[in-house]
Design a protein that fits this description.
69% of the residues lie in helices and 0% in strands. The chain is built from nine helices and no strands. Bound molecules: adenosine-5'-diphosphate and magnesium ion.
């Protein structure tokens, strides 16, 4: 069976993320309209469409090159806070995959790539868990992935656990008061709204659980 961290698998992951964001563009924009500037869905949709086209136009040489292309395209085309942050996520994930040679450890490699991406977003955005950002979906997903693999679960099961954890983390942003990004300008009034970035980040993990499973 195909390797879940090979170039085709990662390309499928990005394609599925793009598809989900396109499908939910209006919902993402509505969430951003409530506590931001109503551009999250449209910006991310534009960036991911460009990323899918870039992968299609010039097939990447290896898994790291695929994610690097996604990163640079997002940084160039998305704008706002989330463009550079998602760009950093994919750039750091690419860096973590660069040294992977042994496909028998693909689960650990993928978990390390997710963790490296998360750490990159923390370093770049200086947000913490609980600040009502994309980190609140990405962090629980990384933890769930690590925990499931440490417990000896197969990668497919670990990815599904990560997607559930990301969705729970997204839901948990509703009562939070935003402390980073535009939503923080609202202070207490940001509470009671689901964070748009955590919502798109949950789609990123859901896409991984769809596109990277069944490849054992
Ligand atoms: P902008 O706020 O510049 O319009 P977007 O609307 O594309 O950017 O993205 C907003 C999302 O970005 C927020 O919902 C939040 O999840 C995320 N975000 C904003 N600032 C940070 C940060 N410093 N660290 C992590 N995520 C952040
Ligand atoms: Mg916005």
């Amino acid at each position: 069976m195909a390797d879940p961290v090979d170039t085709a698998a990662l390309t499928a992951w990005v394609g599925e993320f793009a598809r989900l964001v396109h499908e939910q563009r209006d919902e993402l924009t509505a969430l951003d309209a409530a506590i931001g500037d109503a551009d999250h869905g449209a910006n991310l949709d534009r960036g991911l469409t460009a990323a899918v086209s870039a992968l299609d136009a010039e097939p990447p040489a290896d898994p790291a090159a695929a994610l690097k292309t996604v990163a640079t395209t997002l940084i160039r085309t998305v704008g706002g806070a989330s463009g550079p942050l998602y760009g950093t996520f994919f750039l750091r994930a690419a860096g973590a995959l660069g040294g992977v040679t042994d496909p028998t450890h693909h689960g650990t490699a993928l978990a390390a790539a997710f963790r490296a991406g998360y750490d990159g977003v923390v370093a770049r955005g200086k947000a913490e868990p609980g600040d009502k950002t994309m980190l609140d979906a990405l962090g629980p997903a990384c933890d769930a992935l690590d925990r499931a693999l440490a417990d000896g679960e197969p990668l497919d099961e670990a990815l599904r656990a990560a997607a559930r954890a990301a969705a729970d983390g997204r839901d948990a942003t509703v009562p939070m008061v935003a402390r980073k990004g535009r939503a923080s300008y609202l202070g207490e009034r940001s509470a009671g709204h689901q964070d748009p970035g955590a919502t798109s980040a949950a789609l990123l993990v859901q896409a991984a659980a769809t596109a990277l499973t069944g490849r054992g």
